[in-house]
Amino acid sequence: MTIQAGQETIIVEALINGQNVKSLSQLAKENPTNPTEIVGYFPVTTKEQAVEAIEAAAGAFKTWKQTSIDERIIMMRKAIEKIRAAENEIVHLLSREHGKPLYDAHGEVYVSLMWMEFACNEAKPALQEEIKEHENGKTILSYDSIGVVAAISPWNYPIALSTIKIAPALLAGNTIVLKPSPFAPLAAAKVAEIIASEFPAGVINVVHGDADVGVELTSNPYVTKIAFTGGTATAKHIIKAASETIKDMTLELGGNDAAIFLESFDVHDERAMRRIVISNFLTAGQICMIAKRVYVHRSIYDEFVGKYIEAANRWIRIGDPFDSNTTVGPVNNLKQKNYVLGLVEDAQKRGAKVILLGQILDQKLFDQGYYLQPTLVLGCNVHDPIVVEEQFGPTVPILPFDDEEQVIHLHNESIYGLTSSVWGKEKDAISVARKLEAGTTMINTAAVQGLDVRFPFGGFKQSGIGREYGVEGIRTYTEKHVINVPKTLDLPYIPE
Asked: Is the full-model pTM beyond 0.70?
C-alpha cells in the first residue's frame, strides 16, 4: 500500500506471499460524505491471483503450523503495537472511506485491539493440550491447526470484523487469505498489511475483487475453513460453494435484533433513553448487533415515545465525520441508502407515521453525501417489512405490546436470532431474556455498549453458524484431535 501526500489518494494492492501484486484494473472508493471525492483505489484481483494467494497460504502453512504458540504471540503483540502507533492514520482513513464519525472509528480500532490483546492472553491456555488418565488408560486432547482460512469481512466494521478472524486464526497456527468488502477495502487492507509485516511471507494474504474471487475462496480444495461475516443471502451461496469439499465454517450473519421494554422500565431514566438511542443509530444504524425493532409495553408506550424523541433530538447530530459535534455520519453506500429509503417509504404507504430525528449540522453537506436523517416509525403492523427485515440503516420502528407472552412470540418468530435486549427491573428482564432465541441478550443496554469480547458471540437460526470472540472464538480455528492410549486391548464382550 502507498499513501500519497495528505492522504489524498490511497492505493491498495493485493498481498500475496509477502509481496504486493498489481492488478490489471482498479476500482475507485468514494467518500460517502462527498461521493465526488475519491479516497483511494483498490484492485480487481483475478481468479488466478486468488489461486496464487491460496497456494501461498497452503505452502506457508507447512512450516507455520510448527512454530510454537509463544512465537506466534510475540509476533501478534508486535503487530498490535504497530497498529497502535498508526491508529490516528487508520482512523482518519476509515472515516473517509466509510463515513463513520471519528469517535466511532476510534471505537472500532479500540474494540479490534481489545480483542487481539484478549486472544494473545488466552491463546496459550485455550490451545493447551489436555491429558486425562482414567481407569481405561490415558486420553490426550489436542487443538490442532486447521489449515488455510478464507476470511471474508463486511463493510460496516471492516477492521474489527477482519481482526476478529485474523488474530485467532494465526495464533492457532493457521494461515489466512483475507478478502475485505469492496465498500470499505482500504483501512482493512492497511491493518492486514501491518499485521502481515510481523509474520512470515504467505501466512497472511489479502485479495480483493468480484464474485469469482469469492467463489474461489469458498470452493478451492486447499481452503479448509471459511470465516464470513455478512448477509444471510450471501452465506447461502457460500454454503453451496463449500459443500463439495465440506469445509469448516464460522458464519456471523444478519440480525433483526429486538429491544423489549417491560412495564417495569423507568421511562424517566435519561441515561437509559440515551443508551437505546445510541443502540439504534450508532454507525448510522449499520451494525449487525444494533437494536433494529423496539417493543414497548402498552402501559408506558406513549410516554416512552415522547422521552425517546427528546433523547434522540439531544444526541443525534448529522454532519461531517471529522466534525467533533457529529454523532451520525452518512450511510456507507448509495445502494444501502436507497434500500433504507425504500423501507421507510413502504411503511408510510402502509399508514405508518415517520418522525425525523436529530439536527442536520450542514445542509449542503447532507445533500451531497449518502446521508439519511434518522427516523422513528410509529403505527406499523408487526409483520410490515420495516419490522421483519434488517434495515441496516438509521431508522427504527417502535411498537406496543400487551404482555410478555406476546412479545416473546414476536421476538422468536423471526428467522434471525443474533442479539436482543430486555429493559426493566433486572429480575423481570432476566426472566424474559431466558425465553428469547438469541445468541446474546443484554439487560438494560444494547449493541456494542453491551459487547464483551471475553464471551462467545454468534446467532441462532439464520443469524449464523458457530461463535466468535471468547475462548470459543480461538478454538473455532482448530480441529480437536483425540489420542487414546488404552490400558488394555481386551474387551469383555468380544469372544476369544
From this structure: yes
